[in-house]
Design brief:
InterPro entries: ChAPs, TPR-like_helical_dom_sf. By secondary structure, the chain is of the alpha+beta class. Helix content is 55%, strand content 8%. The protein contains 32 helices and 9 strands.
Length: 699
């Protein structure tokens, strides 16, 4: 299989990329950045002049210094056959997140291979076999963590990263799982996903990577074997075993495992959460509507108990809120959402490099496809309306993104007006709080003081939520002045639509209730008059305002679309605006409208994000030919940007083969009227499924 092209970023000062990596080692928190490869080149006619170039890479076998040196040798071979300059030195840096060391291999060409490691203080240490085992496991986990989902969002974050599949057959799988088994109970040292507060034996980057691997490849038997062995050492592992059994449709066995394990460890929150998730999935099965309420009641019991077992974890409270949403118990859903412990999103470790002197991003002939190659040129000339760029919900990540998704699901089911009514039933509203307080005449000016509730509108004096630096005041002011003319270039104003979405009134937050000059007894006495209403957390108050902006822009868009259709006129937008509107509709759970916007985007230019959005719809509708056509284009785009591996695209191909059979899928790929070199890239994904002996590959 052809390897992706090699991007090159040229250093201003020799070795500055290595120095920059060494400087940030102490600041790394999790799995570490992608591997760094730095090469020294010189022209044969001028040996005195050396140039430093570098790129990043994931998925290279990091089990020994020899395997990393072999990677540098492949670059040397490629370079010597394609260029006038010659590689004379190379350094491969690979981070070991267990021991917090940067493993380095220095290759001199021709000549020696020297391996060593650098600690957080920048001092050299000896590289042992145990350290290489840790480094290998971290390397595989990083390959899955930094892989793109097909939409291109991850690829665009870091320039010039080559992405390889770290596990391509059953032999490499055996080595990966053996390393995982040896280091399993140290996995908590790697940290965890942004929605997990405290990493433990079953909630960390190692377990996330293992579950993603089994989900992607369908190698459930290997996962069951691994977790069965580990379960004998610690009963906590039962939750992971059950998850893999559920993935492999071994539901009866999974329920037995959970039943036995919960008896031994009744307050294991991950086990309880796994049960609640399974029961919810069964309850929402449309073929068994009569059992829905009974199963949801069982899910509620498990979810409620998991919040008692882990009150500081976001995931347990979010699951409880989701169960209440499924039960259509809206007041309890909102109360539970308000109880969720929120924490700041910690992004993945990314390389911090000085600006390169030159950037060379080559294209392989095998990845040339006209519609994809035209994407970068047309993208930068597009106009985007300011109101679309200022939608804060698009920036949410981690706990805030999950909480916002629950809120939008409620809105999609009951409507905005009904949600506002429930909000005023559950939470103390600012108006009733002000009228109840009745401040003395001398303190009438107090109502104009800044408070937590009004800060949500004026601009937060505290740290911005989730890394968003726009204050809500700027947001609403900008929105009010621009959203009404969302499509001014189309000649229609959206003021009618603007009035269709009622602006939420303000709630009272705990900070505001505690502020003021009254003593605590007086405050408690006043609050007791509000029929035991809750105080709305400041972040949830902010989420309502952000949701209001999303709904307002969405309503304007849909109203104007209807007006244009009624007048049989064309509704014009730039491709990027359609892409933003598509993701807006997606966030608000309006799938049909999202697909409509994504299609409009693709009619103007290629967009991996829009095509990924449509692909999800094709998969839901079981449209095999359209799914294959979309995957071929997405795989080609990934290769174009140096990525031969996307777990989500591999999963899509695997499930297609499972449903339709390998022969039919290969035939559909081959029957597509695209160049053969492009089709070969997707055939490579199908060949991976055959190597893993996935279901459906026999025929």
């Amino acid at each position: 299989m052809v390897a992706p092209a090699v991007p090159e970023l040229t250093e201003e000062i020799l070795h500055e990329s290595i120095d920059a990596r060494t400087e940030v080692l102490a600041a790394l928190r999790e799995l570490g950045p992608p591997d760094l490869v730095q090469l020294i080149k010189q022209a044969p006619r001028n040996p005195g002049k050396q140039i430093g170039v570098y790129h990043h890479v994931t998925g290279v076998d990091a089990s020994s210094s020899a395997s990393l040196a072999a990677y540098i040798n492949t670059l040397t071979y490629k370079e010597n056959h394609q260029s006038s300059s010659k590689i004379v030195e190379g350094v491969y840096c690979c981070y070991n997140a267990f021991s917090r060391l940067d493993m380095r291999v220095h290759v001199t060409i021709p000549g020696s291979v020297d391996s060593y490691c650098i600690d957080e203080r920048g001092e050299k240490r000896v590289a042992s076999d145990e350290l290489w085992l840790e480094t290998y496991l971290c390397s595989v986990l990083r390959a899955y963590s930094y892989a793109d989902d097909g939409s291109g969002d991850t690829i665009r974050k870091i320039m010039g990263v080559r992405r390889f599949n770290p596990v391509t057959n059953t032999e490499t799988e055996h080595r990966f799982l053996q390393a995982a088994e040896q280091l399993f109970f140290r996995g908590w040292q790697l940290g965890s996903d942004s929605v997990v507060q405290v990493p433990n034996n079953v909630s960390n980057h190692l377990t996330t990577g293992l579950l993603k691997y089994f989900h992607t490849t369908g190698r459930f038997a290997s996962g069951i074997n691994l977790f069965e062995k580990l379960r004998t050492k610690n009963v906590e592992v039962s939750s992971l075993l059950a998850k893999v059994l559920f993935m492999g449709n071994e539901e009866v066995q999974a329920v037995r495992v959970l039943h036995e394990s919960v008896k031994q460890s009744p307050m294991d929150y991950v086990m309880l959460d796994t049960q609640a998730e399974f029961l919810m999935k069964k309850a929402l099965n449309p073929n068994q509507e009569e059992l829905k309420q009974e199963r949801l009641r069982m899910a509620l019991g498990c979810a409620d108990r998991s919040t008692v077992a882990a009150p500081s974890e976001f995931g347990t409270w979010a699951r409880l809120a989701e169960v209440y949403v499924a039960m259509e118990d809206w007041e309890n859903a909102l109360t539970t959402l308000n109880s969720c412990p929120m924490f700041t999103y910690q992004d993945k470790d990314a390389p911090i490099m000085p600006d390169p002197k030159e950037i060379y991003l080559p294209t392989l002939p095998e990845t040339r496809l006209d519609e994809i190659d035209s994407e970068p040129e047309s993208k930068y000339s597009e106009q985007v309306h300011p109101s679309l760029l200022s939608l804060r919900a698009a920036q949410y990540k981690g706990t805030f993104k999950h909480a916002y998704s629950i809120l939008t699901e409620m809105t999609a089911k009951i409507g905005w007006d009904q949600l506002l009514k429930i909000r005023s039933n559950v939470f103390v509203m600012e108006e009733e709080y002000r009228s109840e307080k009745q401040p003395p005449a001398g303190q009438q000016g107090d109502s104009t003081k800044r408070s937590a509730s009004t800060d949500v509108l004026r601009g937060s004096p505290g740290p911005p939520i989730n890394g968003d630096e726009h204050t809500d005041d700027e947001k609403s002011t900008n929105g009010d002045s621009t959203a009404a003319t969302l499509v001014a270039e189309n000649g229609v104003k959206g003021s009618t639509a603007d009035q269709a979405v009622e602006k939420p009134s303000h709630t009272v937050t705990p900070e505001e209730a505690k502020s003021g000059n009254e003593d605590s007894e007086a405050t408690e006495e006043q609050l007791s008059r509000f029929n035991n209403k809750r105080l709305c957390e400041r972040w949830l108050d902010s989420l309502f305002m952000v949701l209001y902006e999303d709904l307002r822009i969405y309503t304007i868009w849909r109203t104007e679309m209807a007006q244009y259709r009624a007048q049989q006129m064309q509704y014009k937008k730039s491709a990027e605006e359609w892409e933003i509107l598509g993701s807006l509709a997606d966030r608000l759970h309006h799938q049909a409208e999202a697909v409509e916007a994504y299609r409009a985007c693709l009619s103007i230019r290629f967009s991996p994000k829009a095509l990924t959005g449509i692909l999800a719809e094709f998969e839901r509708e079981k449209q095999t030919r359209e799914t294959v056509a979309s995957v071929i284009r997405l795989v080609t785009w990934q290769y174009r940007w140096y990525s031969e591996f996307s777990p989500e695209l591999l999963y899509t191909i695997r499930t297609l083969i499972e449903d339709e059979g390998a022969l039919k899928v290969r035939s559909i790929i081959q029957a597509t009227s695209l160049p053969q070199n492009v089709l070969e890239l997707t055939h490579h994904y199908a060949a991976l499924c055959a190597a893993f002996r996935s279901s459906g590959t026999e025929g």
